[in-house]
Amino acid sequence: MGLNMKKYICFGLLFIILLLGGCGSKSEMKDGFYTAEMSDFSYGWKEYLCIMVKDDTIVYAEFNAKDPSGYIKAWDNAYMQNMASVSGTYPNEYTRNYVSQLISGQSSEAVDTMTGATSSGNNFLKLSEAVINQAIKGDAATIIVE
Predict the structure, then answer these.
(1) Distance between CA atoms of 17 and 8, rounded to whole angstroms?
(2) Closest C-alpha to 58, from 82, 37, 36, 80
(3) ∠ CA 76-96-66 to the nearest 5 degrees?
(4) pLDDT 10s per residue in the chain (146 long)?
(5) How far is CA 43 from the centre of its chain?
(6) 116-125 own/partner pairs: CB under 8 Å, 24+ apart
(7) Torsions phi, psi of 39, nearest 5?
């Protein structure tokens, strides 16, 4: 066998090893619903994220916040008007924006926070990472995020 042939064989084996080594390296998400919520209320609201996974794909997500009675932040019109005039955005807008980015990018790394909703955006990043990890484990228990 010539030197060139040995090089081709070595490169071919290396390619196969790299190819096989890459198989299965990405953990798949299990089908189901997964929820994560913040550990504490902030300004009277506790943010949460629920996703639905089907065939290793996030097909639905809901991000919002609730008060101690369970009332949803995006339903609070007075809060929306006050926040919109101060921040330029409001819960019904930024929650949909973050969810849209998560579904289209399928990763918390694909989400950019919005000006005016940075705190919620940072919480969304934490929640989405936690809930995706739950989906990979297949653990449907609600996870609490600090």
Answers:
(1) 14
(2) 36
(3) 40
(4) 555 555 445 444 444 444 444 444 468 999 999 999 999 999 899 999 999 999 999 999 999 999 999 999 988 888 888 888 788 887 888 899 999 999 999 998 888 887 878 889 899 999 999 999 999 999 999 999 99
(5) 23
(6) 116/83, 116/87, 116/88, 116/89, 117/87, 117/89, 119/42, 120/47, 120/65, 120/91, 120/94, 120/95, 121/94, 123/38, 123/47, 124/47, 124/49, 124/63, 124/98
(7) -75, -30
Residue with tokens 């949803």: 72
